[in-house]
Each structure stands twice: as structure tokens, then as C-alpha cells.
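May I ask you for just one protein sequence along with its C-alpha cells in two labelled lines?

_____
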Amino acid sequence: MMSSVEFRDVNLTYSVNSHSPTEALRKVSLKVKDGEFVAIIGPSGCGKSSLLKLALGLQMRTAGAIRIGGQDVKRPRPDVGVVFQTPILLPWRTVLENVLLPADVMSLSRVDAKRSAMELLLLAGLKGCEEKYPYELSGGMQQRVGIVRALVHDPGVLLMDEPFAALDALTRETMSLELQRIWMARRKTILFVTHNISEAVLLADRVMVMSARPGRIIADLPNPASRPRAIEFLSDGAAGELSGKIRAHLNRAHEPQSPEFAPP
């Protein structure tokens, strides 16, 4: 199953109540290949999260085209999973029951979903936590549950909106390594929004940099490093060079005359 994600000349303008229209995104074009891990980084308010909402089908673009697996995105799709900044676990459901929630909503086979859930919980280092409740877990463990829940119905695409932003620095590093390990085992197509340069450099195959609002893609930077990458990789010269390029583009992101980036 092809699971590429493509934005082509996407615009988004919206109005809130009687206020004048706000141009959130302008001519955004990007493509995430099947099985690729792409990070998007940019200033606050540049429209990164809006991109994910558009890809999820939760919001409609003003102009342009969005395709997943070659099909136009018109509504939420079962082949797309999402991980938010906080895991939003239901406190009255156990870890296993939280993970099985998408299967219940989509009326999938409980037997198959439970088998998948148990495999993923083992992969995520949560074996033995199946019957625990969210309040019994640390923040990092709760976020792992959120990732497992997003994968339980085997989506081709995983959209992640700053999933580790609320965690402390050490837990964030641990979770980044865990995500890399899970991605290498499952090879989902991932579009990952972050404010953290080190996180983007550690995880992504490519890093897309956005301008300030209206958000545009101003750089597409490949990561030449092989996997798996340890935290120590961030002290490597190649990581430092990529981080420097990202920072330079972010420094330009607020310039009103920043040139448009045209992907190949």
C-alpha cells in the first residue's frame, strides 16, 4: 500500500467570528515518500499544526491539493494515525483499552486489534502495563501509549504534532530514541512537527523549514546520517552542520522577502 503524503500549492485562509481573514498558509508544496520520516520546523504560529489538520481531513484547504497514497484528502481517513502534544488517554480505561479505542471506533475485529496491541506494547517497552490506568504511568509512558494507540489499526501514515513537547529534556531524548526504534521496526510514513532542532536532526530523513505566517516552505534539508542514531550523534560534525543550516533558515524565516522554496 502506497502511503506517500503530498501537498501541492496549498493555501489556507480562515476567519474567526467577524475578524478579518487570516492567511495561515501560502503555496505550500511538499512530498513525504512512502516510509519516509520528515520533520517540519518553523516559528510559532507559522501553520505547522494546520498542515497536519489539513492532512487529517479535519480542516479544508482554501486552495491547492493534498493527496495521501495518491488519493485526495476530503475527510478523515482510517489509514492515517495521529499523535498529539498530550496523549489524551481516557482515565477510566486501562492502557490496553485505551490502545484499542481506534479499533472500537472503527468497528474492527477485537481479536486482531488485541493481537496488534500486545505486539506494539511489547515493542514500545510497555509489556506488563496492559491493565494499569493512565494515572499510574509517567508522562513518557503515557506518550508511548498514545503512539501505540495511533498505530494499532496499522495506518500507513503517522502524523505527529510536537508529541514530546510537554516532557522534560531527559525523557524527551529517551522518547525520541524509542520513536526511532519503533519507526525502524514498522517503517510508517511520518510527518513530524517540532520546535526542537536537535529532535529534528536526530529523527528525520529530511527537515522542512517553514517561514513565519503565512507559512511557506523555505528549505528542504536532507539528513545524510545513517541509522540508528544515538544521542551522541548530535555532537557529531554532520549533525552540527545540519543544525546550523536549520538555524540559519529559521533566522531568515521572519524576513518578509524570504524567497519561495520550490521542491523538485
